[in-house]
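[09:14] KT: can someone run the structure on this one? pasting the chain below
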Amino acid sequence: METSRIRQVFFVYFLCAFGSLFAQFGDNPVTWDVKIVQGEGNEYEIRFEASIAEGWYIYSQDNDPNAGPIPTTIEFNENADIALEGGIVEESSHLKEGLDPIWNQVIKKYSDEVTFVQSFTVLESTSIEGYYEYMTCNDESCMPPEYVEFSLDVDFPDEGSETDSTADENLDQDTVAVDSMSNSMADSIPTGLDSLSGQASDEVTEENTASRSSTSSVDDEETDCAKEFRAKYELNLGKKGQNNQKKDKSDGGIWTLFLLGFGGGLLALLTPCVFPMIPLTVTFFTKGDGGKGSGWLQAALYGFFITLVYLLISLPFHLIDGLNPNILNEISTSPALNIFFFVVFVFFAISFFGAFEITLPPSLANRVSNAEQFGGVIGTFFMALTLCIVSFSCTGPILGSAIVTALSSQGGAVELTMAMLGFGLALALPFTLFAAFPSLLNKLPRSGGWMKDFKVILGFAELALALKFLSNADLVLQLGLLKYELFIIAWAIISILAMAYLFGWLSKKTMFKKPSRIKGVFASLFLVFACYLMMGLSVDSSTGRYKPRTMLSGFPPPVCYSYLGCEENKSDSEEKEITEFKNNIVDAKAQAEMLGRPMLFDFTGHACVNCRKVEEQIWTDQRVHKLIEENFILTSLYVDERTILSKEEQCVVTINGQDKLIRTEGDIWATVQAINFRSVTQPLYVILAPDETQLTPAVGYSEVNTVEKYKEFLEDGLEAFEQWKEEQKEVEDGEK
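[09:31] RB: done, C-alpha cells below
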C-alpha cells in the first residue's frame, strides 16, 4: 500500500509540472465574472464570482501558501480615491475543509461556485484595478496557477448601478475584458507581460510553468511608463544594431543535446525493463511468416515507430515555445521549477534504488497491447508503443532527466526535440540492427544481476543531478544553503557510496565477497572521481580561492559562492578577480566615458551552466583576464535576478506583439537583451562604445567557448573601438 501511495503522489506531482503545460490549451474549468455593485452613497462592493466545473476545485485565500496548492489571491493597485473596507469575504455553500489526500495537508477548497467580495468606498469617479490569481485542481491533476488582471470604472455617485466586467458569459477564460482594457492569463512563471496603464500589479508569482496569453485588444499607443523604459534601455547601437547577433554555424548545442539524448537511450537499453526485450522481439520478427526480409522490414518499421513515439513527446513544447520563445529559458531559471526538478530526481533515484517502481497505469498497457492484433503497420506501431509504456519504470527517470536537462540548457523546443530524437534512436537501433544480423544475438550478454547493479548506479547519478537543480534554485534566490564546499562534499559522498555499493560493502550478504573484475574497475573510477572532487577544496595560494574543477565547470556553484568567498584575494597577481559592474549599465557607461574604454556587456544568469564555464575556464586564463581588466568595462547583467522593483519602477512593455511585465531586476536585463539584441539565451556577450554604439556582433557561448575564440572576440572589439575613435575624431574635426 505504501509503495502504491508513493507512486500516486509522484504521478500527481509529475502531472502538475509537465502535464499541466499541455492542459492550458484546453478548456479552463473555472469561469470568472467580475462586477461592481453599488450600495448606499459612495459604498461599493467588487465581486469575483467563480463558476467551477464539476470535479474541479479552487483554493481558499486562507490556506497556507507553503502547504502545497496556491491559495486564491486578490490584490488591488494603490489608489488614493479608493479606501478598502475590511478584508475579502468568501461566500459559498460548497466549502470543503479537511485533510487533502493529494497534498497531505488540511486544505480549504471550493467546488461548484464561490464568490470573493471586497467592500470599498470612493471619493470621486475612478477605476479600481489589480489582479487575481488562483489554482485549479481535480482529484488527479492540477492546472498551472492563473494570473488575471482587472480594471473596472467606478462612477461617483451613481445610485443603484452595477458594472459587470464580462460582456459575455462564455468569455474566454484566459481574459476578463473591461472597458477595452487587456487582461492576461499567466501561470506560475512571468513570461508574457500585461498591458495595463503602464502600471504593474502588486504581486505576480515568480515561478511560472508556461507563457502568458492575451486574447483581448490592447491600445496601440504605449503607456508613459513603457516609453520611459524604452528611452532608458533601448540602446543607440548604430549600424550593427537590430540584426546584430553573430550566427552560430556549427549548431553545436543542438548536436550536443542529441548526443546527450542518444547516451540516455543507450543507458536505458541496459536496464532490466528493456534489455531482455531485445532478443524476444527480434526473434518474433525474424521467425515470422513473411521470411527474413519481411522480418527485417517489420523490425525497421518497429524501430521507426519507437523513435516517433519519443519525438511526439516534444511536440507540446513546440506549442509553448511558439507562444513565447523565452518560456523554456525562463523555466530553466525558475527557483520553483528547479526545486521541483530536485524533488523529481530524488524520486527517480529512490525508484532506481528499488524502493518502488514508477509505472504507467496497467490498463493503458493492456489497451495498447490489444491493438497489436490489427497486424501490419498499425499493429507494429502499437507494438512500439507497448514497449515504451511497459518499459517506463526504467526509461521514465532517464527520459525525465533528458527532458529536464534540455529545458535547463538555455535552449528551446528544437533542442528538446533533438534530445528526444537521440533517445528514441538509441532505443530503436538495436531492434533493427539485430533483426538485420540475427547472428549477433549470440554475442549479446545474457540478462542477469548486472542489470540491477547498473540500475542502482543510475540512481546515484540521479541523486547527484538532483543536487545540481537544488543548487540552481539556491543560486537564483541567493539563499546560501548549498555553497561550493557543501556541493563538492555531497558529490564526493555520493561517489564514495557508489564505490561502496560496487564493492558490496552496503549489504551484509556481499560485504565479504570479492567483487567481479569489472565491478572493481568501475568502483575504482568512482574513488578516483571522489578524490578529484575533494581536490577542488584546495586553495590556490596566488588567488586565495578554491581551485575550480575544470571537468565539472557549470555544475558546482561558482568558487566565489562559498564560505571562503573571494574577498580573501589580496594578491597583486594578474589573476585577481576582474572588476565588474553588476546590473548597472548607467555607472558602467559613465566609467567607460571617463576612462575611454569600450563596454563589455555580459548577459548572464545565476543558474546558467555555460556562463559558469566561461567565467571559470576562460576568464581565469591570464591572456583573457588581462585583456578584460585593462581594456574593457565589464558589466554583468543577471537575467534571473529576483530582486523585486518598487511599484514605481514596475511597468509593462510590448516586445514583438507580446506584453512583458517588468517586475524584477532580472526582467529588466532580459528585456534589454530581447529588445536590443533579439536574443533570449545566455550567455550573450556584446562590446559597445561609451556612446552605446555596437562595435562587433553579439556572440553566444558556442562562438567563444575556448580561450582562443574569446581572445579573438575581445581583440576584434578593441580593433573596432579604435576605428570608432577615429570616426569620432573625424566628426569632431569636421564640426570645427
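[09:33] KT: thanks! The longest strand covers residues 43-52.
[09:34] RB: yep, looked fine to me
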